[in-house]
Amino acid sequence: MARPKAGSNLSISQLESMLSSRLADLQHLHKEHSKLSHQLADVEKKIAALGGKTKGRAHIGGGRVKNEKSLVETLELVLGAATAPMKVGDVVDGVLKAGYHTKSDNFRGIVNQTLIKERRRFVSAGRGLYSIKGKK
Asked: Structure pTM?
């Protein structure tokens, strides 16, 4: 609805009518926004189920992913099954193939930090190469 020109003399009933009309429009837009938000959340869930990522939006209604095993436990499984030291990228692939779920945009960095931090479990076998401690 167009704004009235400054200085126009509107009656109270006309102002109330304008206000009522704008409130109805606002209510309609809130309902439409809610509907579209739910549709977008459904699409984002489908994208995530296919292993894709959405850009520019936070995951709606997601929260943290719950895994059966911790990242450290999954790293132990992957590196324990390896016959030779593994590159960080290969470790990341192994962890994901083992069923570990994440929403992190920088999961490789998380894995690398965990391998460095958990020195009592993992050992660096060279630049970017890791193995489980005690395994040769």
From this structure: 0.53
Neighbours of 78 (CB within 10 A): 23
Where do we find the tokens 């609805």?
1
Instruction: State which fold the 71-132 domain adopts.
Output: Arc Repressor Mutant, subunit A (1.10.10)
Break the chain into its structural domains and give their ranges.
10-63, 71-132
How far apart are the C-alpha atoms of 96 and 38, rounded to whole Å?
A: 28
What is the pLDDT at residue 122? 92
CB-based burial label for 131 (10 Å; 0-12, 13-18, 19+): buried
Locate all alpha helices (DSSP H) within the chain, ordered by sequence: 12-49, 71-81, 88-97, 107-117
